[in-house]
């Protein structure tokens, strides 16, 4: 009896875990896949107990160093046997090196999940077991991990990566001293034999000087071994090794086998510092590749220090002997004539930027009409030109360019059939039909320069023209409404012809738009087709007149009026005889295989008209259902699609109003936006009803509201990506300008 009670006591103490789980036993070690003595991976063996192999298993692990840098591992495994076993978790050694933090490293979080299939199709992973802050690795030094170094650094020209540095590829013939010879860790393929397979043998870059100078044209010679006439060479270049933005400068193709030298020239950017040149060589290499990752590809970098100068004589003289047309230089026809200044070369090989301080004053308004040649573009500054300047109106029969706009008499717009717009002294909200895409100087001429400032809002930025070189407003179109601060009451004459059909790309929030028509229309009639996009609308004709869809008023919109409109989301409008929904396009990026997609533009086309023969599946009553070819898209749901295409072009207009019927459990919903948004922002009003948010982007990424934020692998929502929601209960949601519960 005592033995039975003791056995029962121990059984009570043991955990009763029936699902697959971690045992709590871990080990770690470095893995060198390149035999260069540096670890390509930090591998952690996580011991697991697998109880069910009818599904595949997902492993998510997050590694953190002492400075809070995080490395993520996310992989799907097809496990074929039950029982106790190790799962290898490989963290990128190059990233550990780039972080430059010594270990030990903390396994911050690890999770084991089951999923219907590793191929992607189906519902998201279901968590089986997770552990936090469960293991610390050995005390590695970051220098033990794979580092990223070029073949050579150079301060002077020529710079040569000799055969001793880059002969052959990887370790086929001889170890490359700085393997993989690339500053971002781009690795060579390791297949083939020396001088029988593709390889880069040497690279030389030569400047016009004994050093590399900004703006110099450089010559590059790359010696390669061609194994096939399908071998291609790309020359890639970046002007900053700390912020890599590779640019392909040239492409070459082997026309015969054996050793070949390819030559090209290009111009260095005007960025002082370390630039890099890379040769990318391989079989069937595409022309846009900046890192060849095939079995027979070779990648090698040279880093050069690009100077602005080497001595004082390299620094250009600052040319100051011109009449300064900035605001500081204009004094009613008096200008500052500056003297030249010699710049010098400092110890950082950059030229000093001395400013001009000495000048002579020159009087240029010789006719005394208040307009000069430099600041005011007076086209006649002789005594006979007193009545000829940009402030005058064109006289239509005297064969003189009275207003200095390079157009005379009937060729001047002032003399053609016009529509008059009355402008009051002070601020006016206007637009100009039939102006095309006009430079701001042309717009200024329309107003005879009788104004102080012109302002308009484009996107989130205010653009201003105040007649100085610092003005950032360069042009206006029919789509633009604008504020103008007029010096006096005046009437301008504009073209009285049929209106164009411009496109308005409106940003969420406030916009100032033009009215591109010569016809008076009531506001409700003018905006009836896009009223669902509008939150507020204003015109200004002393005073403001407002329109709100919930409490509509009706008033006339007249030619020449500018319109302030607040829209609920990014949207495209087009103008015909009124404002209508405008079509735009979206490139839906796809992976080879299964993709979880959303469609962020509404189209009247059927499934087959948009996607052709591709098959789409949606989730209905916990069952996967095929979307028929003749069916329209349901813009409240996401879809699974299996394809080999890279992109599909989607056409339509922005989504403004969607209702979602959310069921308890898993729901697949459409992401209705064409721009990124954070999970927290998009779901802030519905998050209380959510257990988990998941997307599939080649790997599964999850957001769990109950977890600390750093343990979530999903933070940003991407246009074109469908979203799985695991809801706590049935509810109804709507998307208008944001997502909320109905």
Detailed description of the structure:
- With 742 residues, the chain is mostly beta strands.
- It has four domains: 17-143, Sandwich (Immunoglobulin-like), CATH 2.60.40; 152-307, C2 domain (Immunoglobulin-like), CATH 2.60.40.150; 417-580, no CATH class; 584-741, no CATH class.
- The chain has seven helices and 52 strands.
- Strands 8, 11, 13, 14, 16 and 17 form a six-stranded mixed sheet that branches.
- The longest helix has 12 residues, at 2-13.
- The radius of gyration is 34 Å and the shape is globular.
- The two termini are 63 Å apart.
- Mean pLDDT is 87; it is low at 1-17.
Characteristic key phrases:
742 residues, mainly beta, Immunoglobulin-like, 4 domains, four-stranded antiparallel beta sheet, 52 strands, 41% strand, globular
Output the structural class. Answer: mainly beta
How would a crystallographer describe the biggest sheet?
6 strands, mixed
Distance between the termini: 63 Å
What's the tally of helices?
A: 7
Using the alpha-carbon principal axes, give the shape.
globular
Uncertain regions spanning at least 5 consecutive residues = 1-17
The averaged pLDDT comes out at 87
Radius of gyration over alpha carbons?
34 Å
- Percent strand: 35-45%
Total number of strands: 52
Helix content: under 10%
Instruction: Count the domains.
Output: 4
Oligomer: single chain
């Amino acid at each position: 009896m005592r033995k039975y009670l003791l056995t029962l006591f121990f059984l009570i103490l043991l955990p009763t875990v029936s699902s697959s789980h971690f045992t709590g036993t871990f080990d770690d070690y470095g893995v060198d896949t390149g035999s260069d003595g540096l670890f390509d991976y930090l591998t952690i063996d996580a011991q697991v107990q697998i109880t069910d192999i009818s599904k595949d298993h997902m492993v998510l692990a997050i590694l953190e160093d002492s400075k809070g840098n995080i490395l993520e591992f996310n992989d799907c495994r097809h496990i074929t046997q039950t029982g106790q076993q190790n799962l290898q978790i490989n963290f990128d050694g190059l990233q550990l090196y780039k972080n430059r933090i010594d270990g030990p490293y903390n396994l911050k979080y690890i999770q084991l999940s089951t999923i219907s299939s590793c191929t992607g199709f189906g519902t998201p992973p279901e968590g089986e077991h997770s552990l936090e802050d469960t293991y610390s690795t050995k005390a590695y030094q970051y220098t033990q991990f794979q580092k990223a170094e070029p073949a050579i650094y150079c301060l002077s020209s020529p710079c040569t990566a000799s055969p001793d540095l880059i002969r052959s590829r990887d370790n086929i013939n001889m170890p490359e001293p700085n393997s993989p010879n690339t500053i971002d860790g781009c690795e060579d393929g390791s297949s083939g034999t020396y001088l029988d397979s593709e390889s880069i043998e040497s690279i030389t870059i030569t400047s016009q000087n004994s050093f590399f100078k900004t703006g110099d044209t450089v010559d590059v010679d790359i010696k390669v071994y061609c194994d096939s006439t399908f071998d291609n060479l790309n020359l890639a270049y970046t002007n900053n090794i700390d912020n890599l933005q590779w640019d392909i400068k040239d492409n070459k193709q082997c026309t015969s086998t054996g050793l070949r030298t390819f030559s090209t020239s290009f111009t260095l950017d005007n960025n002082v510092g370390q630039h890099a040149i890379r040769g990318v060589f391989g079989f069937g290499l595409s022309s846009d590749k900046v890192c060849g990752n095939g079995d027979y590809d070779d990648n090698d970098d040279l880093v050069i220090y690009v100077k602005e100068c080497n001595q004082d004589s390299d620094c250009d003289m600052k040319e100051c002997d011109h009449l300064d047309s900035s605001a500081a230089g204009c004094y009613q026809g008096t200008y500052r004539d500056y003297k030249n200044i010699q710049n010098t070369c400092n110890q950082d090989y950059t030229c000093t930027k001395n400013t001009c301080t000495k000048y002579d004053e020159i009087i240029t308004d010789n006719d005394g009409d208040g307009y000069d040649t430099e600041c005011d573009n007076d086209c006649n500054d002789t005594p006979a030109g007193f009545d000829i300047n940009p402030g005058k109106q064109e006289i239509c029969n005297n064969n003189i360019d009275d207003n200095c706009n390079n157009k005379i008499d009937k060729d001047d717009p002032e003399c053609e059939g016009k529509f008059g717009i009355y402008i009051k002294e002070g601020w006016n909200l206007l637009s100009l039909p039939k102006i095309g895409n006009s430079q701001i100087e042309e717009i200024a001429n329309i107003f005879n320069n009788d104004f102080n400032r012109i302002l308009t809002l484009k996107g989130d930025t205010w653009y201003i023209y105040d007649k100085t070189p610092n003005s950032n407003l360069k042009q206006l179109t029919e789509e633009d409404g604008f504020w103008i601060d007029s010096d006096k009451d005046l009437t301008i004459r504009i073209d009285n012809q049929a209106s164009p059909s411009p496109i308005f790309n409106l940003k969420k929030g406030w916009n100032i738009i033009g009215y591109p028509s010569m016809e008076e229309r009531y506001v409700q009639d003018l905006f009836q087709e896009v009223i669902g996009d509008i939150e507020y609308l204003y015109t200004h004709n002393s005073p403001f007149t407002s329109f709100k869809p919930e409490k509509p008023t009706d008033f006339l919109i007249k030619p020449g009026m500018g319109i302030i409109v607040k829209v609920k989301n990014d949207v495209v409008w087009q103008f015909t005889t009124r404002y209508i929904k405008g079509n735009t396009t979206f490139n839906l990026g796809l992976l080879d295989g299964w993709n979880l997609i959303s469609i962020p533009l509404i189209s009247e086309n059927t499934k087959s008209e948009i996607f052709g023969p591709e098959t789409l599946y949606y989730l209905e009553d916990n069952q996967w259902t095929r979307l028929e070819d003749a069916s329209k898209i349901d813009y409240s749901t996401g879809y699974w699609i299996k394809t080999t295409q890279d992109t599909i072009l989607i056409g339509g207009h922005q989504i403004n109003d969607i209702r979602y019927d959310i069921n308890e459990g898993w729901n697949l919903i459409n992401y209705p936006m064409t721009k990124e948004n954070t999970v927290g922002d998009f779901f802030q009003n519905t998050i209380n009803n959510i257990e988990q948010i998941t997307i599939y982007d080649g790997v599964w990424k999850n957001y769990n509201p109950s977890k600390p934020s750093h343990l979530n692998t999903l933070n940003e929502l991407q246009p074109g990506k469908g979203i799985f929601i695991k809801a706590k209960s049935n509810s109804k949601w709507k998307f208008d300008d944001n997502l909320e519960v109905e």
